[in-house]
Every structure is written in C-alpha cells, then in structure tokens.
Write the structure tokens for this entry.
Amino acid sequence: MTKEEAKQKIAELVEKYQKLTAKEIKGFNEEATKQAFIQPMFRALGWDFENTNEVSPEEHASNGRVDYAFKLNNVSQFYIEAKSLKADLNREDYIKQSVSYSYARGVIWAVLTDFESLRVFNALQNKPFISLSCLEYLNHFDDIWLLSRQAFTDNELNKKAQAYGAMPPFIPIEKRLFKQLSQWRENLFNEIYRYNPEKKLEREQVDSMIQKLFNRLIFIRTCEDRRIEENGIRALLNQWKTGLSKGYLSKPLRALLKEY
C-alpha cells in the first residue's frame, strides 16, 4: 500500500469513528477497539498481522505483556499498548505501563493509543515525541507515516527524532568505541586488580580477560547496531537498573554470552 493509499484508508477509519454515537463508543472494549480501528490502521501502514515475525501479539515484556510488538527481521522496532475508545491516554499509569515495557526490553519506541488519540514516546529517555488526536491524523499524516513499515525500514523515525533533539545523534559504533575503550580498559584493569590482591593473575592474563570480554560485547553490539538482533545488552542493563533483574548484572550477562 502506498503512502497515499494508506492516508485514504486511515481517513475512512477516522470517518467511521466520527459516525459513532456516544453510546456506541462506550460499547467498544479494548479488544473491539483493536479489531475495528487499531489493527486496520497499522495494516494500512504496511504491517502484516498474519506474520508473527513482523507483528507479535501479546508479547512478554518485563513483568507483563505488551499488546503488539512490531518487528523488522524479527527484531522489535516499537511496542503498542492499546486501550479502549475514549481512554484517557494522559493517565500516568497508562504512560508508565507503555514506556516501561519498551524500556525493559531495550526497545526505543513505545506507542500508546486508543485510536481516538495516539502518543509516541522515546522509552529510553522517557520523553513524548508525537501526540495526536484522530482529527489531526490527516493534517499530520507525515507523523503517522513514521510508524509505517516502510518508514522503519528507512529508519525515518530515529532520524527525525535526532533532528529534533528527541534522541542523541547517531554515532557509528566504531567511533563510540574508539573514545570509550581506553577508559573502560583502565577501569576494568583496576577493578580486577582490586579483587586480586595476591596478584595471582599476571598482567598479561588480565589484559587477555578484558580483551575477550570486549570482543564479545563488540560482536553483540554490532549485531544489535545492524538490527540483526534485539537490543539484549541494553535490555539487561535497564532491567537491572529498575530492579526487574536481581543480584549482580554479571549473571544475566553470562547467560546472554552463552546464548550467542
């Protein structure tokens, strides 16, 4: 479906919504809202709801389940938390629920919608980025199109967010590592020596341990950076920060390394 065709389809959904009476709107629970409005809207934006590798319903996230995970190459791009028509999307618990699901899985974007309104959050920075009512969908269709499959293929939402300062500018992974590796190596070396008071490990052994860890982390981050794999390292860190993961971070990190 082209961008213009998608706009026409969403215009039809807006018209359908506007024709509902107040009594009919009250009759729409969350599931009916998803079936009648939210799914058709995102189908029009190019997402295949019959392919669970692209749209995964009721996916586990942190300590609950997100209504939909939207994926490219089986890697999550954004989560949707759906509500029934006329829900108050400004409710703090709704926003927290939507953002925390994405944050815990290292997914940048969280969408909260009841179709009548739509809110897009940068979950990693806990910042709102797009907020529209359905009456604004057509006049601001370029913003709606940022949630299309094609736009995510072209990385348009991240680019726009960077341009507006809603997320840090993209820096290639090799440049970030070049700046940080020396400091990380020094920190790790000092930490290992702190817990090695009898100097049972030679300097060369410590260097080898650090390099092996770096090699593994670089490999994983390269896979994540190229959108081949989910953001596993970020997810582990976020879960540890928020208390969803108990104990030392090293335990889930070892499990991730073993998985790779």
